[in-house]
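Subject: design request, 182 residues
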């Protein structure tokens, strides 16, 4: 049996084709894997109703303009990015609604001069979740998180970073409570 240049090229081509087919099969098999851990069941759509800012009704809390809009959009974005569900304005399989019930700054530690060395911004959101495809998954819960910042800084100077941290943690907690199947 003679292995010439032509046969050697054919063997290389066959190995390359087999490798590429195997690689395509592997990628296709991994395509359905979901790293977020989301379990959407038979649900195909979700809606996030406007989270009204009711924080000023809680003693010690303040009203932050635009907080309601920004939080609502952050929750919509997180769910859209971590699932294949379609965002809709009505009649969705999964519905999120609620209100922002706390937004307050409080001193956490004091200096020797009786001034705040560190402040804490706390935000709490009351959430109602409805799953039309699995009714025993419905819940109403309060989600809360905080952001600490130096007492010599004003909230205005750290607000953008603080909101990013608060939104990221609270929306992730809401997502985990409603869709994570750990």
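Subject: RE: design request

Done. Sequence follows.
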């Amino acid at each position: 049996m003679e292995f010439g240049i032509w046969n050697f090229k054919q063997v290389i081509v066959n190995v390359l084709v087999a490798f590429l087919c195997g690689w395509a099969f592997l990628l296709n098999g991994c395509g359905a894997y979901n790293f977020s851990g989301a379990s959407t069941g038979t649900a195909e759509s979700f809606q996030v109703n406007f989270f009204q800012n009711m924080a000023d009704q809680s003693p010690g809390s303040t009203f932050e303009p635009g907080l309601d809009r920004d939080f609502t959009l952050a929750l919509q974005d997180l769910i859209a990015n971590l699932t294949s569900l379609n965002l809709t304005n009505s009649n969705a399989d999964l519905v999120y609604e609620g209100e922002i019930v706390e937004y307050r700054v409080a001193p956490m530690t004091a200096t020797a001069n009786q001034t705040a060395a560190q402040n804490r911004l706390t935000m709490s959101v009351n959430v109602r979740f409805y799953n039309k495809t699995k009714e025993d998954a419905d819940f109403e819960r309060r989600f809360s998180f905080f952001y600490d910042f130096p007492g010599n800084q004003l909230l205005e100077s750290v607000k953008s970073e603080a909101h990013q941290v608060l939104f990221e943690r609270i929306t992730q907690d809401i997502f985990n409570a409603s869709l994570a199947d750990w």
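The first helix runs from residue 5 to 30.
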